[in-house]
Amino acid sequence: MNEQDYSVIVVGAGMTGIAAGYYLGQRGIPYTILEAKQDVGGVWNSHRWHGVRCDSDVIKYSFSFRPYLSDDCLQSGANLKAYLRRVAGEFGVLANIRFGEPVSSARFDPKTHRWTVRTVSGVHVARFLINGNGYYADQPYVPRFDGEDLFRGEIVHTSRLDGARRFQDKHVVVVGSGATAICCAPELARVSGSVVLLQRSPSYIYETDNRPGPLIRACQALHRRGLRFPVRWLRRYLQMRDDLIFVGFRRFPALARAFFRRHWLPAVGEAALNEHFTPRYNPWEQRIPVAMGMKEALRAGRLRMKTAEIERFEADGIRLKSGERLPCDVCILATGLNLRFFSFEVFIGQRKVALERINFHRGFMLGGIPNYFQPMGSWHSAWTQRAEPLLRQAVRVIQHMRARGLDEVSVERRDGTAVPGITPNYVMRSAATMPWLEGTSDLPSIDNLLSLLFRPRRLRYG
Question: Taking a C-beta distance cutoff of 8 angstroms, is the pair 299, 316 a contact?
C-alpha cells in the first residue's frame, strides 16, 4: 500500500480540525479538511455577538505547539479566529482546507476499508475519518413566549446578533443566565440606552479583571526568550488547578458557596446577592460563567439585574409573572445552543449507525465504527486540553496501522447512559440520547497523564 492509502478526511476547521491537520502534517500523513463555512474558526467564526469570548485562559486554551502569548488572560472571539487562521497558515494547514463543504453523510465500506464522505460538491474518499464538528448545533435554542406576535420591538438570539450593532436610546432586555448572557450584558450596557439582564434563576458567576498574574507573565517572558518548558509546565499547572477547583467545589459545596458570597457581597449588597446571585444548585453542577466589567456596570447603573419568569410579551415590553412590566425595545435571547455531537449521518455498508447512547471509548473513538476518531473535550475546562492529546493518540493509531499494513481499527460498541459532568439545561435536554464517555476520568490533568500509557496495539485491528 502507498501513503495515499492511509489518507484522512477531517470534518471541520475549528480548534479540533486545525490541530488534527497540524499533527497529521507533522507525521507526513495526507489529509483534507472539509469545512462547511467560508473561513476557519468554528464557533469563533460564526458567533459575533457583543462580548463573545472564551472563558478559559488563552495560554491554556491555545495549541501546545503554538501557544497564544498575551497580556490578557481571556481573548475575544475575533482574536481567537485570527489566531486560528494564523496557525493554520503557518503550519500549512490552510492549503488543505476546502471551504463551503458541509458534510451530509459518511459511509464506511467494510470491503475496501475506506470512508466515502458526501458534501454539496461531491464525494471524498479516505482510509480514516476524524470528526471535528464540535458539539453545538448551528441552530440555537429559541424558547417561545406568549404574545411574541404582538411585540412591536425586535427579538434576536445572540447567535444571530452582530456585535457591531448599537442600541442608543433603546431599552434592551437580555434573557438568560449562562456564560453568553454574562459575557454579553456588560458589553451591551456600553452601547445601549439601558440594559436589564433577565434571568429565570441565578447562576454562580466569577468576575475577573483579565490581567495575568506574575507566574503567567514570567512564563510567557521566558517563552519569548526561547525557553519553551515554562509555558508547557504552566499549561499543565493551570489545568490541574482547574480540575482541583472543579472537584473541590463539587466535594465541598458549602465552602464554594461561601467563596461566591464573599466574591459578590461587597459589590452588590446583601439583598441583591440573595435575589440575583444565590443559585438553587451547588457550585459546578453547572458551568460557572466568567464576567468582565459586570460589577462596575451594576454599580454605575448601566446594567440592572432582574430574577423572574416571563409571562408574556406585550406591544412595547415584557410582562413578568410577578406582575411587573419591563419596557423593552430589543429583546436579546442568550438562551444557549442545542447539543449536536454528529452533524451528518454515518453508515457502515448499507446500515445506518444509530448514534444515540453510543460509547466514546477513551474520549476519541466510537464503539463499532471503524477507522473513525472524534476527540471529545472536557465539559468544565478548555476544549483543547483534552482534545489535543486525544488527537495525538489518533495519529499514533494511524501510524501504527501504516507501519504494519493494517486495514481497520475499531472498538466494541457498548450502549449506555451518559452521566454528564455538569447539568445545565442545554445538556439535560439531550441527556437521554447523548453519547457516553468510557475509559476516562473526565479530568484532563489525569486523562492526559494516562494518555502517556496508551498503546495502539491494545485496540482491535482487522
Answer: no
**Given this model, what pLDDT does residue 322 score?**
96
C-alpha–C-alpha distance, residues 352 and 349, integer Å? 8
Instruction: Clarify whether residues 184 and 270 are in a common domain.
Output: yes
- Contacts with 120 (C-beta within 8 Å, 6 or more apart), sequence order: 100, 101, 102, 104
CA distance 43 to 179: 14
pTM of the complete model = 0.95
Residues 365 and 325 placed together within one structural domain of the fold: no
Pair 289, 330 in one domain: yes
Tell me the three cell numbers of residue 80: 481567537
Residues 273 and 407 in one domain: no
* Rounded-to-integer distance, Cα 89 and Cα 91, Å: 6
Q: Are the C-beta atoms of 181 and 288 separated by less than 8 Å?
A: no
Q: Which residue in this structure is represented by grid cell 453510543?
A: 358
Per-residue model confidence as pLDDT tens digits over 128-142: 999 999 888 888 999
Condensed to tens digits (0 to 9), the pLDDT of residues 176-212 reads 999 999 999 999 999 999 999 999 999 999 999 999 9
Taking the CB of residue 301, how many other CB atoms lie within 10 A of it? 9
**C-beta separation of 155 from 174 below 8 A:** no
Q: How confident is the model at residue 41 (pLDDT cuts 50, 70, 90)?
A: very high
Domain that holds residue 158: 140-209+238-337
